[in-house]
Design a protein that fits this description.
Elements: E1 3-8, E2 11-15, E3 17-20, E4 27-28, H1 30-42, H2 50-56, H3 62-69, H4 75-91, E5 95-96, H5 100-109, E6 113-117, H6 122-132, E7 138-142, H7 155-164, E8 171-175, H8 178-187, E9 190-194, E10 206-208, E11 215-220, E12 223-229, E13 232-237
Parallel strand pairs: 3-6, 3-8, 6-7, 8-9, 9-10
Antiparallel strand pairs: 1-2, 1-13, 4-5, 11-12, 12-13
Helix pairs in contact: 1-4, 3-4
Length: about 240
């Protein structure tokens, strides 16, 4: 498989995998997720604040959110909340983040490891992969049931890179949520933020609005350049040319 080197300023980093969060990175699901949790809260005559949503929903696995925001409910009602969230997320169509399907196809065809690391459920992950037409390109998937400690703990990204047989420091990660950025950065990966400028202080190297202007350009017979923006490029080299 090829290795990937990121050239930023005068520093060179070498990578061999590109990992994507799902919600907010692969699909524009923020509104769907927020509405699902607000509906669940209204079922029990409670209101979720914007702070609740930002701190305890986006980027967090469902069981964590239920334990944090619905911990006073009986277990039977917590299961109803979870069932509602799963149903909405698994049955509501979401649009792809612009350009991400083209990028994944380009990376996969170039022979780069591509993975998904998410707090989502397997059924939803499978739907998103089909929406992306990415079945041939995904080398690893880490979902909520694969880990005991979800994001912001580094375990999800450590597990993904372990399954690929590489150190976490050799992975480029695309994340849109604070907990996901913390997870990736703490694992030792090179993190690219998607959408939110507030992610920069958490350790992202660059922020992109979406993937429309991210381009994979052939550099030579043995290498490609992945252009994130004007001053951040990822150089993809085949392993036999390093």
């Amino acid at each position: 498989m090829p290795n990937v080197a990121v050239l930023t300023n005068d520093l060179q980093y070498e990578f061999s995998a590109v990992l994507f969060d799902m919600d907010g990175v692969l699909i524009d699901s923020r509104t769907v997720i927020e509405n699902a949790w607000r509906e669940a809260a209204l079922m029990y005559d409670r209101h979720l604040t914007d702070e609740d949503i930002q701190k305890h929903i986006h980027g967090h696995p469902g069981p964590y959110t239920i334990r944090t925001l619905f911990n006073d409910l009986p277990v039977s009602d917590q299961k109803i909340v979870q069932a509602h969230i799963i149903h909405v997320e698994n049955t509501t169509d979401c649009k792809l983040i612009p350009g991400v399907d083209r990028l994944i196809a380009s990376l996969g065809e170039a022979g780069i490891y591509v993975g998904i690391v998410t707090s989502g459920w397997r059924q939803k992950i499978n739907r998103v992969i089909k929406l992306l037409h990415a079945e041939p390109y995904i080398s690893v998937i880490v979902e909520r049931d694969d880990v005991t400690r979800g994001k912001p703990h580094p375990e999800p990204y450590l597990l993904a890179t372990q399954r690929l047989g590489i150190p976490a420091s050799q992975a480029v990660v695309f994340e849109d949520a604070k907990s996901g950025v913390i997870s990736a950065v703490t694992a030792g990966s090179y993190c690219v933020g998607v959408g939110d400028e507030d992610l920069m202080p958490l350790g992202t190297k660059v922020i992109i609005p979406d993937f429309q202007n991210v381009k994979l350009i052939r550099n030579s017979a043995d290498s490609f350049i992945l252009k994130l923006c004007a001053d951040h490029c990822i150089l993809l080299n085949k392993s036999n040319s390093l």
